[in-house]
Amino acid sequence: MYLIFRCDCGRALYAKEGVATRKCVCGKTLKVKSRRIFKKVTTREDASLAVQEMQDKIYGNTDFQLASDL
């Protein structure tokens, strides 16, 4: 089971259930147990997709592009 939550900086993150801490890309270390859980999913792939969807809702288009398309 994977937990979907947000950092104080606004970025959506996921962590495996039972993990004590998770480090955000902003540098902050978060205690998973004290965070508000937005969603629970069963696989890592589902967790990754859920985070991408949350990021898309928050920041708009977050799709990756190939360097040749830039």
Describe this structure in words.
The protein has one helix spanning 44-59; strands at 2-6, 12-16, 21-23, 29-31, 39-41. The protein has one helix and five strands. The model has no long low-confidence stretch (mean pLDDT 89). A hairpin with a 5-residue loop joins strand 1 (2-6) and strand 2. The strands form two sheets. The protein has a three-stranded antiparallel sheet, covered by helices on one side. A two-stranded antiparallel ribbon has the order 3-4. The protein has 70 residues and is of the alpha+beta class. It is globular, with a radius of gyration of 13 Å.
Structure characteristics:
70 residues, alpha+beta, Rubredoxin-like, 3-stranded antiparallel sheet, two-stranded antiparallel ribbon, 1 helix, 5 strands, 23% helix, globular
Topology:
Layout: E1 2-6, E2 12-16, E3 21-23, E4 29-31, E5 39-41, H1 44-59
Antiparallel strand pairs: 1-2, 1-5, 3-4
Q: Given the helix and strand composition, which structural class is it?
A: alpha+beta
Arrangement of strands in the largest sheet: 2-1-5
What is the CATH superfamily? Structural Genomics, Unknown Function 30-nov-00 1gh9 Mol_id
CATH class: Alpha Beta
In short:
The protein is an alpha+beta fold and 70 residues long.
